[in-house]
Write a structure and sequence with these properties.
The complex is a heterodimer of chains A (272) and B (314). Chain A has 272 residues and is an all-alpha fold. Chain A has one domain: MetI-like fold (Orthogonal Bundle), CATH 1.10.3720. Chain A is built from 9 helices and no strands. Chain A starts with 5 loop residues before the first helix and ends in an 8-residue tail after the last helix. With 314 residues, chain B is mostly helical. Chain B folds into 2 domains: 72 residues, no CATH class; 221 residues, MetI-like fold (Orthogonal Bundle), CATH 1.10.3720. Chain B contains 14 helices and no strands. In chain B, helix 1 runs antiparallel to helix 13. The longest helix of chain B is centred in the N-terminal third of the chain and has 36 residues. Chain B starts with a helix and ends with a helix. The chains are: A mainly alpha (272), B mainly alpha (314).
Chain lengths: 272, 314
């Protein structure tokens, strides 16, 4: 058996660590992450509180674990929503071609003019800041990304002989898209989804840091950092841990995505 | 060439128009009644009616869109609801802050990325190469706002070399520059890790070609070949990414200004959200999106300047 790429293995390990912590937080955290204890605020690491406590005496480890769950849920929702709409649009563009394809791709180009932050800003101004708006904004920027990948990959598959055969057999374009194109573009879509997962984690953290995402008391790495920023002279350690969590998660999904691409698309593995 | 310019310019204008439609639709159709959004649920009916009249909400949607776009083209973005001055004045006051930050960040990004990328390519498969690749992988995963906090922790809280935030104004240029050092580094470090990777792989591709071997064989030094022969030929993908990054840097300033309390457009946008100042938010979002679109347009044009061979194909 061929050796798996190092980035795939390291990425998978980091991803397992983060997902594991998030899953574990559903049934167990060392303490209730909302439990306050003002007397025990800014506690140092101890047997009871492994990474100490924050400005309200809440257990830092428990908060980090609950925030991991939040981060994974947001990224999953955003990638699922944006990914399925984008992939559907890409398949549609590729199946019909002509002006429909041009139109879909031009609309996708327009989508690229809106970073998630700008979209989240508009939604926050109109509806007030909330986690739902953050998810919508991140989903939205995923649509053009997946539309491009799906269309480019699907266009290649449409030229294959088995697709021509299916057309000759009288299958409709929709049926061919579903039964022949989609399964064959799954690999690049999954690779893209893994990479976009990393992007979504970063975006959620940034939006929550800016106050446009998770609202108190919902746990979020980004929000923990914005709270820690005002306390940097008092408790600098609180500004460290959530950032390390973000980096671990983003690095993990990013490496996993790169590794998966190397495995599924050997043509891309050049001298790197 | 003229046809190419025409096509690209037309595409650029159409994209800008489409973007303006999206911004207008989100800010004017989604809220239902913008006057209610701005004043809140406890506003009196008289106040709502007055604001509707002031914002022109009684006119049909289409004519509101065209008057917004028409006025915006002449630099009139309406009146800020919370500051009670023209939005264009607010923008004019704060734009220099944001632009100097973005430009400083861009210069820092490009210089650092070229040195790291070319250096890594020159040391392909050696320790230096792996080091750069590792750092850039890490750099992509680090959120700019957290990097900013770490920089503040080290250089402001611990070492006390630089201010932790705020901006003293340009009347004291030394203090102003000092205030911009940490934000510039925070803004540029993350982007330069992306650019360094692109520079490296593009340079590696060029280094494999025959004319590089010929240049070396003619007796030019390694350094000369790297910077005079490899770099210019590796520029096309680098410029593409730089253009996309300028857009990312400009929107990145929104975050960085809020971390360092810098009085630019990014701070203004957040103050306007807090004040439910829809006209200001709408103008600023349009401005940022327009900068992104324009940056991409300029990149398209720059290709032809950098690589005249593309002219034939264009």
């Amino acid at each position: 058996m061929k050796r798996l790429p190092v980035n795939l293995l390291i990425g998978a390990a980091l991803v397992l660590l983060v997902i594991g912590a998030a899953a574990l937080s559903l049934i167990w955290t060392p303490h209730d992450y909302t439990e306050m204890n003002i007397r025990g605020k800014f506690g140092p690491p101890s047997e009871l509180h492994w990474l100490g406590t924050d400005q309200l005496g809440r257990d830092v480890v428990s908060q980090l674990m609950a925030a991991a769950r939040n981060s994974m849920a947001v990224a999953l929702a955003a990638v699922l929503i944006g990914g399925s709409i984008g992939t559907a649009l890409g398949l549609l563009a590729s199946a019909i071609g002509g002006w429909v394809e041009d139109l879909v791709m031009r609309i996708a180009d327009i989508g690229f003019a809106f970073p998630a932050l700008l979209f989240a800003i508009m939604l926050a101004a109109v509806f007030g800041p909330s986690l739902t708006n953050a998810i919508l904004a991140i989903s939205f920027i995923n649509i053009p990304v997946f539309a491009r990948v799906a269309r480019a990959s699907a266009n290649q598959i449409w030229t294959r002989e088995y697709v021509t055969a299916a057309q000759a057999a009288g299958l409709t374009r929709a049926a061919i898209s579903r039964d022949h194109i989609l399964p064959n573009i799954a690999a690049p879509i999954i690779v893209q989804a893994t990479i976009e997962f990393a992007v979504a984690i970063l975006a959620e953290a940034a939006l929550s840091y800016l106050g446009l995402g998770a609202q108190p008391p919902a746990p979020s790495w980004g929000r923990m950092l914005s709270e820690a920023q005002t306390l940097m002279y008092l408790a600098p350690q609180l500004a460290i841990y959530p950032g390390l969590c973000i980096v671990t998660a983003v690095l993990g999904f990013g490496l996993l995505g790169d590794g998966l691409r190397d495995v599924t698309d050997p043509r891309l593995v050049r001298e790197r | 060439m003229a046809y190419f310019l025409f096509r690209r310019t037309l595409g650029f204008v159409l994209t800008l128009l489409a973007v303006s439609v999206v911004v207008f639709a989100v800010m004017n159709i989604l809220p239902g009644d913008p006057a209610l959004t701005i004043l809140g649920l406890d506003a009196t009916e008289d106040a709502l009616a007055a604001l509707r009249e002031q914002l022109g909400l009684n006119d049909p949607l289409l004519s509101r869109y065209f008057s917004w776009i028409g006025n915006a083209l002449t630099g009139d973005f309406g009146i800020s609801h919370s500051f009670r001055v023209p939005v264009s004045e607010l923008i004019a006051e704060r734009l220099p802050m944001t632009l100097s930050l973005a430009v400083a960040g861009m210069i820092f990004t490009v210089i650092l990325a070229l040195i790291m990328g070319i250096g890594a390519a020159a040391n392909h498969r050696k320790a230096g190469d792996w080091g750069v690749m590792f750092l850039s992988q890490l750099g992509i995963a680090v959120p700019a706002f957290w990097l900013s906090m770490l920089l503040v922790l080290l250089f402001a809280v611990k070492l006390r070399w630089l201010p932790p935030g705020g901006f003293p104004g340009w009347s004291d240029p030394i203090a102003a520059m000092r205030a911009l050092i940490l934000p510039t580094v925070a803004l540029g470090l993350v982007q330069s890790s992306v650019l360094a990777r692109v520079t490296r792989s593009s340079a590696l591709e060029v280094m494999r070609q025959d004319f590089i071997r010929t240049a070396r064989a003619t007796g030019f030094s390694r350094q000369r070949v790297l910077w005079r022969h490899v770099l210019p030929n590796a520029l096309v993908p680098i410029v593409t990414i730089v253009g996309m990054q300028f857009a990312a840097l400009v929107t990145g300033t929104i975050v960085i200004e809020n971390v360092f309390y810098l009085p630019g457009l990014g701070r203004l946008i957040f103050q306007s959200i807090a004040n439910r100042d829809l006209p200001t938010v709408q103008a600023l979002v349009m401005l940022f999106a327009a900068i992104v679109v324009t940056a991409n347009f300029i990149v398209d044009l720059l290709y032809v300047v950098i690589d005249p061979r593309l002219k034939a194909r264009a």
